[in-house]
Amino acid sequence: GGDDEGKIWKPMSVLQTLISSAYEASYILKRTSRENVKTMIPKLAKNAALPSPLSTIKVLMSIVGNYENMGELMLRDLNGMSYWGRLGCDVVTYEFRYRLEQNKAQSVGLQVFMSSFYHVCSDWDVEVDGVLEFVCRDLGEANTGNVELLRGLLSVAGGMPSWGTQSTEKLYARAGGSHLRSKIVSFGKTAKSGTNSKSQSNLRATLMPYGIVMAVRLAHLRNVVIFTEKENLSLCDNVTSLLFMLIEFLQQDSDGWAKLFEGKENLDDCKLDKGILFALVRPLLGAKSNLAPSSGDVVEELFYRYSLADIHCPEDLYIDEIKNSAVSSSEMASLEHELHVCSKHVKDIRNHVLSKLSEEKVTFDVDKFLSGHILPRAILTSSDAIYCSKFLQLLLDACTHMDDLSVKMYEKMLSYIRALLYSMTEEEGSNLGLFLFDTWQLLSSWRYGASSSNDEAAMETDDKVSSNSAECKLDVERYDEWHTNLACSLILALQCKEELVSRTALKVLIRMVSVYPTKGVVGELLLKKLQPIQTGEGSNKALANSYFGQLTRARIDGVWKEGDFKAEAERMEQEKAKQDERREKLRLQDQALAAEVAQYDKLNPDKREWDRSRGPPRIDRDRDRRPHAGAPTFVPRGGLAPNDSSRVGSGPPPVGLEGRWQKGGSLPSGGDKRSRTPPPLMDDPGKRTRVEDRGRGGGSGGYRERGRGSYR
């Protein structure tokens, strides 16, 4: 007919195969769990390896999209992936691309599944170019639906760690550079992640043509999110971290990254923030300085030209890690050489910056430099936060010709922080806390001396407190003023009714807990202000409990160098009262136990003399062995009349068996206990004896055959 014209009909056998495979795939997936995944995945993979696996893949993606952890679970058994085959993998990418275009691939579970899929199937050169092209086009339209997909590809297939949740030690270790950090597993991607070099190289080669375009569009998307997604500012953190993760991943191939900028004069038309713009072109500034805008300010140019790996190298961290790593002597020598090269590079850059600033005796506007350059870059990433603090220390060492530079700089900085706490996201607050941690570590050394350094001192190397800074002694009054101003800013933000502001303050405090506060009165006040958050029902309760534990631990470790003696005495009295109460409770328990034992002994007088270490006496040990008056008599076969000697336990020993009878030891002396004697033997074993039935045999009486005798 007219409606059926142009359609291609499938044979009934093919339709039956498609329907049965889809039904079987649904049956397998609905019964898959963590316990049986290793047996179920090969079944599903074999089903997907049929001549037409599309129906199985559709069912797979429909079910995986409903669960966040289903995608990772499906690819846990890598041996089962060998059954998929090249055709099955191509169908997976085709179906996923189709769902992307139909806007049906927004679920977290499906994006996690595809990120793991591209990593596992890297040996088969699975087509990912179409997916990246679609994601790049989607970012250009300011859509945020596929941000997590790109993040999953970079973290799973690319092996890029998420630095936002790393410890302070690992964040400082980033100063070693990507090349040195990649050789030491503890400071890079964990070994259990299973990321292989082929997966990284394939993804980097496919992603490189879209590198600049994606980075620029992500930077613009970040600005869009800030002004449009005010209720979901965590999305801004995700976009920002993804942007710098993408830049770091692509810049690991320096040659390929340099080719992207061939023929480009500058990037001013992109209208990017200076921090993001210089992050894109920083590896190329030596050869192509025209890519970066020049403002004519020497301090500003030096500030944006370098990164953390250029002015700081945590030698102590890497030396300890190299010594503790289980590597061969040749590999250890190679790591030590890499560390030496990194350290030499840092010293050359620092000497260059110091000489250029000191020789030209440059001056700059402290207010403008802090508000326009230092603080905006410090909240971008964790490495930028540490870099900004280290660069400020370089300025203090070089610009000695400027009067009271340190006082002006840190007073202005602390005044800006109060306003920043109310206009930051959670991740930016964590970065600001890292910046304040490194800054306050320097101020604390000025106030209390170098001997006051704590466990984090290992993060400092050649620039511990260099040259002029080491001789600087901070006035007690000024340090107390700065300490109080920062405490007021943080406590006010902590008590804010907006949970985002309170959470940001907690993030800052957690990063600084090992160096701030140093005064006991501020620490006690912070512990007191945490109680409403800990007892409340908000989302910050867990974070407040975490900070409470860390702050209590810092007090024990001696971070509070100036204690409030009154509060300290009250706390010691409270602890002493608790200990006394505990002792009194144990004493009462002992008294109650003793009274209970005495009551038991009173109710059981016969057992008072027991040896409690050995338990109660054995009954058969002290039992009287004499025959009871009502014991049955023994009738021998010889027909002897029963008498007293025929009772059990009496009579002479058997005749003819003296050598075979084993006599036991004598009974304890005392009393009239009788010794054991064996029963007499019977003369006629075949004689019948009339016995009286005592109700045990069910009969009334009669003759019964006895082998050795009868009891009557």
In a few lines, what is going on in this structure?
With 712 residues, this protein is mostly helical. It is built from 29 helices and four strands.
Plain-language structure description:
This protein is 57% helix and 1% strand. By secondary structure, it is mostly helical. α25 runs parallel beside α27. The longest helix is centred in the C-terminal third of the chain and has 39 residues, at 565-603.
Task: Name some characteristics of this structure.
single chain, 712 residues, mainly alpha, two-stranded antiparallel ribbon, two-stranded antiparallel sheet, 29 helices, 1% strand, flat
Name the helicity range: 55-70%
Termini separation comes to: 111 Å
Shape: flat
Low-pLDDT sequence parts = 189-195, 451-458, 461-471, 661-675, 685-712
Q: Main beta sheet: strand number and arrangement?
A: 2 strands, antiparallel
Mean pLDDT: 76
Q: Compute the number of helices.
A: 29
| Rounded radius of gyration (Å) | 42 Å
Number of strand elements: 4
